[in-house]
Amino acid sequence: MSLLRSLRRDVQAALERDPAATSAWEVVLAYPGFHARQLHRLAHWLYRARLRLLARLVSHVGRFLTGIEIHPGAVIGEGLFIDHGMGVVIGETAVIEDDVTIYQGVTLGGTSRLREKRHPTLRKGVIVGAHAQLIGAIEVGEGARIGAGSVVVTDVPPYTTVVGVPGRVVAVRFPDNRPIARLPDPEGEDIAALTRRVEALEARLAEMGEALRRATGTAHARATEYWTSGELA
């Protein structure tokens, strides 16, 4: 794809996925995600040309201007939309395919210190919610959605929704028009069962406390009657 067509696709991605965007000029002039993407194009070209220091300097300037840090080695496809973007970090070996959406505070991070694939791969159409942390050389399947604040350290199947810490699949979205399939949530079910058990125990303790108060009141009344009846005289 030519550079001009690629730029147009980036603009169109913002217009399609952000209802606040009112015009192409607004995206070009006032969207830090768009700016970060274009600076990364230059940094990535320099990185592939083995001008690594210059590539990192361009990346550093992009981070300073936009608040978005994208390593020059990251591979990014067409139609990436970074909404707001402040605090986004994308590591060196990350791979982002076409039409991916990333919100603010997201980290595509690594755990290994070896010079190997150590950052996530996001397949086509993935959506990553605000402040989600995707760590390691994991793969997020096509069309998957990562909930805000989730921590994902394992592969994510295509067209699924993942939430939580650690992230777990809670629903499956089919690429056709079939309804979303809600999956069992064993952890949620266990928590709900424990909550019901605690409520039952609290109710039982309340009953026992009331019975004890009634028994104590009856004993006190009998003792008072005994002492005032003159039976000890």
Verbal overview:
By secondary structure, this protein is α/β, with parallel strands linked by helices. The chain contains five helices and 16 strands. The protein folds into two domains: 3-183, UDP N-Acetylglucosamine Acyltransferase, domain 1; 184-233. Helix 3 (32-48) runs antiparallel to helix 4 (52-66). The termini are far apart. The mean pLDDT is 88.
Describe the main β-sheet briefly. Answer: 7 strands, mixed
Enumerate the strands of the largest sheet in spatial order, edge to edge or round the barrel. 3-6-9-12-14-15-16
Which blocks of ≥5 consecutive residues have pLDDT under 50? Answer: none
The total number of structural domains is: 2
CATH architectural grouping of the largest domain:
3 Solenoid
CATH class of the largest domain: Mainly Beta
Q: Helix coverage percent of residues? A: 40-55%
- Overall geometric form: elongated
Ends apart, CA distance between termini:
112 Å
Number of helices: 5
Query: Mind telling me the CATH superfamily name of the largest domain?
Result: Hexapeptide repeat proteins
State mean pLDDT (0 to 100 scale).
Answer: 88
Number of strands: 16
Q: Predict the CATH topology of the largest domain.
A: UDP N-Acetylglucosamine Acyltransferase, domain 1
Describe the structure in brief.
The chain is of the alpha/beta class. Helix content is 42%, strand content 17%.
